[in-house]
Amino acid sequence: MAGRRLLLPLVLAAAFLAAAAARAGSKPSAAVFELIHRERATWAEMARNDRARMAFICSRGRRRAAETGVTRATATEKHKAAPAAEAFAMPLSSGAYTGTGQYFVRFRVGTPAQPFLLVADTGSDLTWVKCRGPAPDAGYGYGAPLPAPSSSSPPPHGRVFRPEKSRTWAPIPCSSDTCIASLPFSLAACPTPGSPCAYDYRYKDGSAARGTVGTDSATIELSGPGAEAAATSTSRKQRRAKLRGVVLGCTTSYNGDSFLASDGVLSLGYSNFSFASRAADRFGGRFSYCLVDHLAPRNATSYLTFGPNPALSSPAPKARTACAGSPPAAPGPRQTPLLLDHRMRPFYAVTVNGISVDGELLKIPRRVWDIEKGGGAILDSGTSLTVLVRPAYRAVVAALSKKLAGLPRVTMDPFDYCYNWTSPSTGEDLTVSVPELFVHFAGSARLQPPAKSYVIDAAPGVKCIGLQEGEWPGVSVIGNILQQEHLWEFDIKNQRLRFQRSRCT
């Protein structure tokens, strides 16, 4: 969300992939974004920002539970089948110089199109850009002034949205039903009926974004259907088109480190007004991403795709007898219901049935995974380290640490369990069998993350159990490190989450 610290330990770097035909027939098209892993913050910084985000998630859940059913009533209308569309792709660039390890997407909005570099965030429901325009301070009932560091002037690189120069910019009046009843991030104040709808995103650490909201058109590059060919070809012709009616925030003042190096936020969360939902409506009702190893080389790439992903939508290969010495075939896609619960919006929730270590199902109270009883679980690309609420965290950490009891313990912030993984005789890393961790979802879907995703390399010769403890009652968060080296597809239209192991290349 705008107004809070955003965190992804991977960064999109400058590249452009055109989407084009990959298969014969009339399959739905897809849009592909190239993602490149770059620098990351320290583990302590990641944990600190994850805790801030967790506080936001919990407060967000309480707020959503108290809301009326306005957005729920319209949710069933927004994903009606749309005609098959061509693919579109957007250029991406690296934000490694920020030291926060975010994903950035190059986004063109307005008529004529104005280019911006935005943070891509699955926990956001408002797309906003830094904006040059009259600050909506008078009459809106804003709270205290934004604390330092803050800015109400254009950033040094000069990328700032100028709504008066866009022929398709349309401010949303604060007296409109859209502002009053539909936009969850709008302010209630309305100085005059014609005044623009305003927002003030704040977080406990002081980060915030203020501005007014309207609609505009995003410029996209169209090409033939199919994502596979898009990942291998850059020479095909594209033609530009408009994705109209994109809800856009015009931010005139902001503060927070996350916003200093970017031009704003691209919303990938579940909402009637997010960019993800708007684009998915036109491109197959789904989007997917695959995150490379968080310690991969800088040139390692992965993809964000709008539309059916060929890797998941292709028929599964026929079973065959394995030859002696041949590696086992990679398991096919798994799927589980995607819970689009209004209390969890804009986050994507899933039903967890349990967690096992080395085949033993751990004794975790079922209420921990039950939204109705104050629990639940979400997947969040903006949280780095997986956060388990206290009963689940203690059970999982106890099981893992028991298996690693023979290793010497060391202390390292922010983790509770760290181990010296270096042989005293050779100075090389020890060969130690890491216990297998499984997350069991509804529908018999099972996630088996690579060992390096939960017993992580924290420092040279040191590995730690890479989980964080969350408050109970509360929501558990499957962070992006536990998601790495898996392809995840969020099928909003059919309310399904599909995933499978992948090298993300």
TrEMBL record:
Which residues fall in a compositionally biased region of kind Pro residues? 146-157
Identify the CDD domains for this entry. pepsin_A_like_plant
Q: Which residues form the signal peptide?
A: 1-22
Q: Name one GO molecular function term.
A: aspartic-type endopeptidase activity
Boundaries of each Peptidase A1 domain copy?
103-500
Single biological process term from Gene Ontology: proteolysis
Does the keyword Transcription regulation belong to this entry?
A: no
Q: Which PANTHER family match?
A: ASPARTIC PROTEINASE NANA, CHLOROPLAST, OS07G0603500 PROTEIN-RELATED
What's this protein's family per the entry?
Answer: Belongs to the peptidase A1 family.
Protein name per Swiss-Prot or TrEMBL: Peptidase A1 domain-containing protein
Species in which this protein is naturally found: Setaria italica (Foxtail millet)
